[in-house]
């Protein structure tokens, strides 16, 4: 779907506002916004566009309607080895989307009304912040429907809610209301359903007023603490990005292009 255009989106609604907020809405309300491979491909396309667009500062991920954020993988297209799309190939491509959301150097906010369960629960967990409506319901269903996410779905969850609670959530596969989710540290705030959009905007606008580079490097640092070598690579990439913008960094490039020795003597060594 690399050639996908906005006009071809069927499972997702993609909007961008003047003020710098991109809103990505999973639009399969009849299925409680369950995702099929195409849904994930479309989401990935939207996140990629929002990443590349310099006018976008914050991204909101949500689900259509008030009944669900996302109910996970569409069980009606689950085949052997994954979820089967129009091309007949079984995929677990939501795993790539999780990585994409974490790697995206802008804050991603999950706006959750109704069910965030199964793979849908993991999507909200990998977002940077979660704003929940008071009708939101959270949980993993995997062990009941013959599935599990032994990646971020388990390990990142344990970082959010602690080991005991993570094992409870997965082993018992219970559902939790918004208040319980807040107490567990799964979400940032709970608001009445009719204030969900407004409150999400308030949080987004507050972040938009802050230094984009500060937020970018902080996200990378918080990821790095969990992501091992891949996390260090992400954090390190930010250092390179900043160094390329400096005079010292540019001196090296300039010297190479001018076929002369670089002169780094004028750059102070800070303590
Ligand atoms: O674990 C993974 C992965 C792990 C590793 C790598 C990749 C992974 C990818 C995905 C997943 C998973 O997501 S596994 C977990 C899959 N999800 C579920 O087990 C949730 C199934 N749904 C429900 O438990 C309930 O529908 C609900 C709690 C979300 C809502 O209940 P409610 O309000 O009573 O509505 P309900 O009548 O059940 O659903 C409305 C319609 O939506 C139904 O269709 P209808 O009878 O009207 O034709 C229902 O079948 C459909 N629907 C809801 N969720 C799904 C779904 N259809 C397919 N797949 C769904 N996930």
Automatic annotation (TrEMBL):
<protein>
    <recommendedName>
        <fullName>1,4-dihydroxy-2-naphthoyl-CoA synthase</fullName>
        <ecNumber>4.1.3.36</ecNumber>
    </recommendedName>
</protein>
<dbReference type="GO" id="GO:0009234">
    <property type="term" value="P:menaquinone biosynthetic process"/>
</dbReference>
<comment type="similarity">
    <text>Belongs to the enoyl-CoA hydratase/isomerase family.</text>
</comment>
<dbReference type="GO" id="GO:0005829">
    <property type="term" value="C:cytosol"/>
</dbReference>
<keyword id="KW-0456">Lyase</keyword>
<dbReference type="GO" id="GO:0008935">
    <property type="term" value="F:1,4-dihydroxy-2-naphthoyl-CoA synthase activity"/>
</dbReference>
């Amino acid at each position: 779907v690399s050639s996908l255009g906005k006009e071809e989106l069927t499972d997702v609604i993609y909007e961008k506002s003047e003020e710098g907020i991109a809103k990505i809405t999973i639009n399969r309300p009849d299925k409680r916004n369950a995702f099929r491979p195409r849904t994930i491909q479309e989401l990935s396309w939207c996140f990629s566009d929002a990443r590349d667009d310099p006018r976008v500062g914050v991204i909101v991920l949500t689900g259509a309607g008030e009944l669900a954020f996302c109910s996970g993988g569409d069980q009606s297209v689950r085949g052997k080895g994954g979820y089967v799309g129009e091309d007949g190939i079984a995929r677990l491509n939501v795993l790539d989307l999780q990585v994409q959301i974490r790697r995206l150097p802008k804050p991603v906010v999950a706006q959750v009304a109704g069910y965030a369960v199964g793979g849908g629960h993991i999507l909200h967990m990998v977002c940077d912040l979660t704003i929940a409506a008071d009708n939101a319901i959270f949980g993993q269903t995997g062990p009941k429907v013959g599935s599990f996410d032994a990646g971020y779905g388990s390990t990142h969850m344990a970082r959010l809610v602690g080991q005991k609670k993570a094992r409870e959530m997965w082993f018992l596969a219970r559902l939790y209301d918004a208040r319980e989710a807040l107490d567990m540290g799964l979400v940032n705030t709970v608001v009445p359903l009719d204030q969900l959009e407004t409150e999400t905007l308030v949080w987004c606008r507050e972040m938009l007023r802050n230094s984009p580079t500060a937020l970018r490097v902080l996200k990378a640092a918080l990821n790095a603490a969990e992501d091992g070598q891949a996390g260090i690579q992400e954090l390190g990439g930010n250092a390179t990005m900043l160094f390329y913008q400096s005079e010292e960094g540019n001196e090296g490039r300039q010297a190479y292009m001018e076929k002369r020795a670089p002169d780094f003597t004028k750059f102070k060594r800070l303590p």
